[in-house]
Design the sequence.
């Protein structure tokens, strides 16, 4: 991040200088009045612009440690610059009670401290440095955060002449891939009247096939098992009359890049695939981050977070959405099939983070 300070007789002129030098994407970090050489009161604006260092191409064939290192160093540099240049915001943070309350509540809920600081700094800039009341601060913060959270609606249309849409459920062991697939299969079959098929690629764990087969039987959905790529092709071909096919996969430790490569090779050249990356909200923030990084080589349609009922630290969900560009589609909120699932919304995610009765709209 490149940080610069501009001084001009008026705020308007200072902002024009910022725009000219750092471009329209520049972030205003702070503003204050300073005396000019002639003794008049001028406006000083500190502003920053993201500086992108180009990283090597990533993909399932690369272990990309260099790209990761560059990204980490870049992140540390940006945050340091931001801390140094945002002295005013730090002072406000200490002095303003609702602001300090919000700051601490977000940290308690597990939101990444750096993100909290950046989002609050931007929110304060929006408020133009005015000492604000609680609802105004919360609203300005929510506006910033909402701008970073994308929610996906992956089942909007029934696939027409091009054949069935195929949805795979990928992710670490025990996160709830099979349970989530069953919940969504019930929703699509009963509420949306989709003609469905289910394929299980999970022949690794004893009982995994039986678990899904039972759900498929209850829902009266055709079910088949595939051991390898050619089985998968055959199974998809047999179900080609369906509107959608849901594919369950084996949970693996995807911090091991080899497992991601294997998954990638299974789905390579299979058309109309949408991949859901299923993650548990109970996982550690850094583990979630690493898992998502390792899945970058696979074209992930959206993230699904499960087990929201088992944690009070929902910040780790939002951390991933702010860090990465993936949208979130569904939230798993319990073990019951099919009840315990809901479509992710920005409002719901914000409600998980903010203290009750926060006054935000
Ligand atoms: N509390 C809670 N448990 C869940 C949720 N989703 C799945 N589970 C449980 O997590 C365990 C593993 O689920 P499973 O679907 O077999 O995970 P998989 O290995 O990723 O396929 C089971 O006991 C599920 O009932 C959820 O949203 N909340
Ligand atoms: Mg499973």
Sequence:
């Amino acid at each position: 991040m490149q940080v610069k300070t501009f001084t001009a007789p008026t705020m308007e002129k200072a902002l024009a200088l910022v725009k000219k030098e750092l471009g329209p994407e520049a972030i205003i970090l702070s503003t204050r009045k300073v005396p000019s050489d002639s003794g008049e009161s001028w406006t000083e604006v500190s502003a920053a612009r993201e500086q992108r260092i180009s990283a090597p191409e990533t993909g399932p064939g690369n272990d990309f440690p260099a790209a990761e290192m560059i990204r980490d160093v870049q992140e540390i540099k940006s945050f340091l610059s931001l801390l140094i240049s945002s002295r005013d915001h730090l002072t406000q943070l200490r002095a303003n009670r609702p602001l300090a309350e919000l700051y601490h509540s977000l940290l308690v809920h597990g939101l990444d401290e750096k993100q909290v600081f950046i989002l609050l700094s931007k929110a304060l800039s929006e408020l133009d440095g005015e000492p604000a009341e609680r609802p105004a601060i919360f609203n300005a913060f929510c506006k910033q955060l909402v701008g970073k959270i994308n929610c996906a609606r992956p089942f909007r249309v029934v696939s027409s002449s091009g054949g069935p849409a195929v949805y795979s459920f990928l992710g670490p062991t025990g996160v709830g891939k099979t349970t989530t697939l069953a919940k969504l299969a019930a929703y699509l079959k009963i509420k949306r009247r989709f003609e469905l098929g289910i394929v299980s690629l999970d022949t690794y764990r004893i009982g995994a096939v039986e678990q899904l087969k039972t759900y498929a039987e209850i829902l009266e959905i055709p079910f088949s098992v595939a051991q390898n790529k050619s089985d998968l092709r055959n199974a998809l071909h047999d179900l080609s009359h369906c509107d959608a096919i849901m594919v369950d996969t084996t949970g693996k430790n995807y911090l091991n890049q080899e497992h991601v490569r294997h998954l990638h090779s299974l789905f390579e050249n299979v058309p109309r695939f949408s991949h859901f990356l299923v993650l548990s909200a109970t996982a550690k923030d850094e583990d979630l981050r690493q898992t998502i990084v390792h899945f970058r080589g696979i074209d992930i349609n959206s993230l699904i977070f499960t087990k929201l009922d088992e944690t009070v630290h929902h910040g780790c969900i939002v951390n991933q959405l702010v860090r990465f560009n993936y949208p979130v589609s569904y939230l798993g909120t319990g073990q019951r099939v099919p009840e315990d699932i809901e479509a992710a919304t920005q409002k719901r995610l914000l409600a998980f983070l903010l203290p009750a009765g926060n006054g935000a709209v």
Observations:
- The pocket of magnesium ion (ligand 2) is lined by residues 177-178, 202, 208, 248, 251 (CB under 6 Å).
- The CA atoms of residues 278 and 304 lie 5 Å apart.
